[in-house]
Design a protein that fits this description.
mainly beta, single chain, 11 strands
């Protein structure tokens, strides 16, 4: 069974940092396009950051550039999103996603992704 299981997240004050992880089972994440998406209350789901199958293309939303870093760890079949300098507007439910593709270039369309994590709440508040 192909599955993505998320961990990490929680609540933090503005300016703080959090790390989200997503562990894959049933498939090799290193061969897949991967991405992080988020959905705030009352808003549509939006792309945060994605990496193509080859790893040659990495995309970031303008709102998180310079603050968030996406990575893939092939050794333990996981992907992470390191989030620094968090702002209240980063508050949302965050989802990891993966797809065999193959895709290159801009890969942050959520419609590309067949496999999704369960979602994790991130709250940034003072």
């Amino acid at each position: 069974q192909l599955q993505l299981v998320q961990s990490g997240g929680g609540s933090v004050q503005p300016g703080g940092s959090l790390r989200l992880s997503c562990a894959a089972s049933g498939f090799t994440l290193g061969n897949y396009a991967i991405g992080w998406f988020r959905q705030a209350p009352g808003k549509e789901r939006e792309a945060v950051s994605c990496i193509s199958n080859s790893g040659r293309s990495t995309n970031y939303a303008d709102s998180v550039k310079g603050r968030f870093t996406i990575s893939r760890n092939n050794a333990n079949n996981t992907m992470t999103l390191q989030m620094n300098s968090l702002k209240p507007e980063d508050t949302a439910v965050y989802y990891c996603a993966a797809d065999p593709g193959p895709y290159e270039g801009y890969v942050c369309y959520d419609s590309l992704y067949d496999y999704w994590g369960q979602g994790t709440q991130i709250t940034v508040s003072s």
